[in-house]
Amino acid sequence: MATKFDPIRDLDRFFSEVTRTPNTAALPMDLYREGEVFVARIDMPGVDPASIDVDVQDRTLTVRAERTANTSTQDIKWLTRERPTGTFARQLTLGNRIALDQISADYTDGVLLLTIPVAEEARPRKISVAHNQGTDRSTTVTTDLGTSTGTDSGTSGTDTAV
Questions:
Q1: How far apart are CA 30 and CA 45, in angstroms?
Q2: How many other CB atoms sit within 10 Å of the CB of residue 71?
Q3: Local structure of residue 34 (DSSP, 8 states)
Q4: H helices of 6-135, where?
Q5: Helix, strand or coil, per DSSP, at residue 50
Q6: Cβ-based neighbour number of residue 105 at 10 Å
Q7: What is the pLDDT of residue 137?
Q8: How far apart are CA 40 and CA 33, in angstroms?
Q9: Of the candidates 109, 96, 150, 113, which has an alpha carbon nearest to the alpha carbon of residue 39?
């Protein structure tokens, strides 16, 4: 069966292939923040789970994986071959407020799920302030780290650091 020549389709395919980088084409990724964690979902269909390598060095998270061709014989005449094979990598630059020691990875159904938690010191905190009426001032500060109370008689003009 002969294929019909379509110059627009052929040009579109050519420019798509030229502008596409190998890493993004082979390992497409979704990245989003959900509460106090960043979540990365990286598609890796056909990848052997044993070939997946995730490491962090100098705030750069690198994911590597290998997809091999599933050909049992060498006497193959390809009609079309669109599934890329080889070793692929993606890198993410992590900020300073990430808990590097708590990053987790799970590979299920061809998707690598990376959970990247925000560090405890980078999370927002609610500070409540209590005020007592009278000659003595009392200040109570409550954070996730505990409660501190300071008093000042109001006569010396100095405040107690909390």
A1: 15
A2: 10
A3: E
A4: 7-19, 22-26
A5: helix
A6: 16
A7: 54
A8: 9
A9: 113
Structure tokens that stand for 46 in this block: 């056909």
Answer whether 0.85 is exceeded by the pTM. no
Instruction: Confirm if 113 and 37 have CB atoms less than 8 A apart.
Output: no
pLDDT of residue 86: 87
Q: Would you state the structure tokens that stand for residue 61, as one six-digit string?
A: 């998270």
DSSP code for 121: G
**Rounded Cα distance, 140 and 7, in Å:** 74
For residues 23 and 155, what is the distance between their CA atoms, to the nearest angstrom? 68
pLDDT of residue 23: 47
- What does the block give as tokens for 114? 């990376």
Alpha helices in 85-128 (DSSP H): none
| The two structure tokens encoding residue 82 | 């669109």
CA 3 to chain centre: 43
Q: Name the token pair of 89.
A: 């990598």
Which of 100, 106, 113, 101 has the alpha carbon at shortest distance from 34? 113
Token pair recorded at residue 136:
């003595």
Ranges of the chain with pLDDT below 70: 1-26, 73, 122-123, 134-162
Q: What residues are paired with 40 via a beta bridge?
A: 31, 114
Output the pLDDT for position 95. Answer: 86
Which residue bears the tokens 């209590």?
A: 130
The tokens 């998270």 sit on which residue? Answer: 61
